[in-house]
Amino acid sequence: PVPRVAIVGRPNVGKSSLFNWIARRRLAIVDDFEGVTRDRMTTLIEANDRFFELIDTGGMGVEDADNLTADVRHQIEMALSVADVIILVVDAQQGVMPLDEEVSERLRSIQRPVILVANKADQSHQDVLAEDFQRLGRGRLVCVSTTQNRNRDELLELIVDRL
Ligand code: GDP
Ligand code: MG
Description:
This protein is an alpha/beta fold. It has one domain: P-loop containing nucleotide triphosphate hydrolases (Rossmann fold). 30% of the residues lie in helices and 21% in strands. The protein contains five helices and six strands. It has a six-stranded mixed sheet with strand order 2-3-1-4-5-6, sandwiched between helices. Helix 2 (68-82) packs parallel to helix 3. The longest helix is centred in the middle third of the chain and has 15 residues, at 68-82. It is globular. The structure holds guanosine-5'-diphosphate and magnesium ion. Magnesium ion (MG) is lined by residues 15-16, 28, 36-37, 58-59.
């Protein structure tokens, strides 16, 4: 069976953008409004002669902020039920938010590799600020920008190493 890699994180950090960027196709819907991805998206990725199935667990259609916690819980349950490796996405420009801490906390009990991806590091000087995410204690941090095409190969290498 092909290993599965699930993308999790609070709304609007760029999970669907990351999914499309890794896939090099526009499959998941990217939107400025939170919670656009309603269904789980999956695609087969090949990197360094290895294959994995990438999963965008999505925002499940959140309509108001009160449902964020339930939404994130649902997303994580889905990831935990299917994933061999988890990509936790955070926003390098916003810094650590309470919901990032909650997502991270919910992943703590699982014995599966987590890759911490600080997206929206559009310029290299933003990588330094992103180091604050290390305190989430979720393992190796990689700074990327899907819009500026930064560190895609580095991320793929990290994923493949953990399959
Ligand atoms: P999701 O809710 O986590 O799936 O987030 P989306 O992929 O829908 O993206 C949310 C917003 O972040 C959209 O406006 C994207 O254009 C924007 N975005 C995604 N990646 C980047 C990035 O690398 N840099 C910047 N500046 N914006 C990004
Ligand atoms: Mg999305």
